Each structure stands twice: as structure tokens, then as C-alpha cells.
Amino acid sequence: MYHAAIAGTGRAVPPTILTNAELEKIVDTSDEWIRTRTGIRERRKAGEGDVLSDYAVEASRQALEAGGLVPKDLDTILVATVTPDQPIPAMACLIQNKLGAKKAAAWDHNAGCSGWLYGLHVADALIQAGKAHNVLLIGAEFLTRLADYTDRATCILFGDGAGATLLKATRSDHGVLATTIRTDGAGASFICMPGAGSVYPPNRPETYEQRLGFIKMMGGETFKVAVRSMTDVCKQVLDESGFAASDVTWLLPHQANDRIITAVGDRLGIPSERCIVNIERYGNTSSATIPIALDEYVREGKIKKGDLILFTAFGAGLTWGAGLVRW
Ligand code: COA
Fold this sequence. Notes:
Elements (H helix, E strand, L loop, with lengths): L2 E10 L4 E3 H5 L6 H8 L3 E3 L7 H16 L8 E5 L10 H9 L5 E5 L5 H14 L5 E9 L9 H4 L4 E11 L4 E9 L7 E2 L12 H5 L6 E2 L1 H23 L8 E4 L4 H11 L10 H4 L6 H11 L8 E8 L3 E8 L1
Parallel strand pairs: 4-5, 4-6, 11-12
Antiparallel strand pairs: 1-7, 2-3, 6-7, 8-13, 9-10, 12-13
Helix pairs in contact: 3-4, 8-9
């Protein structure tokens, strides 16, 4: 039976850097607080005229080239995003057109910061079912566009960027070994943006007046559930595939807070030198954190054939998940 293997990666981030020192001039915060509470030193910020789908296309071209395919080889494009270019149509359709991937069905999904992992789960299932062979999975966000720069508790966290992953069908012992995804809608208010949907449409005055079109987060509560939930699903995928944490070459978690990453690593017994962390340079780019970090480590030659990579993510929904991949 076929399953999915990661055949190529790519990333594109805006050139403009927003440092902690610059945020000190906007909200009542300090570089010291941000670094010690989150691990973030700087993040990327899209320019006024920048369009997210252009960044996603650039990342996708790199992933396709690395994987030896051209856009017309794609049968599926999955885009994980909470910040599409526009609500309708899906950003995946815009990307499909810009790439010229005429044979690919394309759609977006919103699983918050777990979006890339949800996409990995779906792509692997489609490939196993014989419904897809060459899948482009993109995580792309312009989170600074939804960050409230009057709320110091959230605006310091977010950054912009896009990562792409090419998944190919394989019968080899490489690729996706196990995935699991979970949801708890009872925690919907932990991380949310109440406005710009159908309850508070963008064209109603209260959406603007009550600042409902910005991301809101209950940070402390989210932190605790995130650590517990990611640890649980990591253990599940390891158990299901017959591996122990000591077999894992790299833990690649969603980059929301380096204290969360350390806590998950500690609970699993994976030391920090085997945890992939780049939050200090990009902040939280939601669904893009994992594919961006993966591409960095692949291109720097740190990830090698045969490595066992444990992915995990947690985000708005609440959503979370894990995946185990043999490189
Ligand atoms: N600068 C300075 N002080 C700040 C601040 C900032 N940017 N943001 C909050 N504070 C203050 C608070 O007002 C509070 O002050 P008080 O004690 O006087 O009330 C204090 O710092 C502690 O706030 P708290 O929210 O408890 O901080 P924290 O240690 O929980 O860190 C987060 C906040 C957001 C960094 C952290 O909770 C977090 O990362 N949460 C999880 C995020 C996550 O996983 N999201 C899921 C994916 S998106």
C-alpha cells in the first residue's frame, strides 16, 4: 500500500524584521520580558503591498524543485491558513492558478496552528486511499495583519511567513509512519478572532469599534493545555508505530513559545539538542512554523536520510496533533 513521503520543502519569509526593541516603542513591553517568557527575539513582518499567496507560491516552487516535480504533476494542493488573501475563494485556488497546477484540486483548511499537521494527516490518508499521488501541503500566514498592536500579551508573539512541503506516494519504508489529530471545541475561546465571520461581518460597525477583527488569546490557560495535549499525542504516535522517544532524531514542534517546546521535550525525555527551535527569529507564524523550520533544517543538512522526526502542533480550535516521519 502507498503512503506519503516528504519529497521536497521550501520557505519564503518577508525581508523586514520586527525586533523586540521596535515593539518596546509600540506597547508597554521589554526585550527581556519577551525573550524570557517566549524565546522570541524578532519576527518577520509583511510589507504594505505584500500578498500572502505570492509567498506561498515562492515556497511551493522551491519544494517542487527539491522534489523533482513540476506544477502540472500535482493532483492536490492543501493550504493551511487562518489569514488567506481573501475569504472567498480559498487561497489554495489562487496558488493553483499562480503555479499553473492545472490538474490539482485545491482547497484551504483552518485548523489554527495545527493546520500543517492536519494537512499531513489528510494528505497521507488521501495517498493511502489511492485518491492522490503528488500533494503540495502549504502552511502560510500573515499573522501580523491580525495582531492587535494595542495588546502587549498577543502582538509580541506573531510573525509572517510561508512554508511548503511536497508529499509523494511511496511504498518504501520512508515517509509518514503515523499521524493523529484531535479537537476540543469547548476551548474555542482560548484562541480566537470573533469578528469578520458571519456573526460579526466585517461590514458591521461593532466589528471595527470593538476590535473584533484581531486575535485574542488566553495565554496561561492555553500554555497548560498545549503542553499536556502535545505530549499525549506524541506518545500515542510513538506507541502506535512501535518506537520510543529515545529513537527520535528530531522533535519538531509548532513554535508558539520555547518554554512550551522545552516542557514537551522534558516530558517525552527528548533533550533540547534534539528539539528543532527557530522561534527566536520568526515568532509564531501559526501553520507555517513547522514547514519553515523543516525547510531550514533540511537545507542546512541537519536532517539526514533515515532520521526519525516527531512533529507536533497545538492551536486554535482547540486543535492538536502529532506525526512520525522516517526521512
Ligand atoms: N510585556 C510585558 N509584560 C507582559 C506582556 C508583555 N508583552 N504580556 C503580558 N505581560 C504581563 C501580564 O500583564 C502579566 O502581568 P501581571 O502579573 O501584572 O498581571 C504578566 O506579564 C504575566 O502574564 P501571563 O499572561 O501570565 O504571562 P505568561 O507567562 O503566561 O506568558 C504567553 C504569556 C502568551 C507568552 C504564554 O502564556 C504563552 O505562550 N501561551 C501559549 C501560547 C500558545 O501556545 N498558543 C497556541 C498556539 S497559537
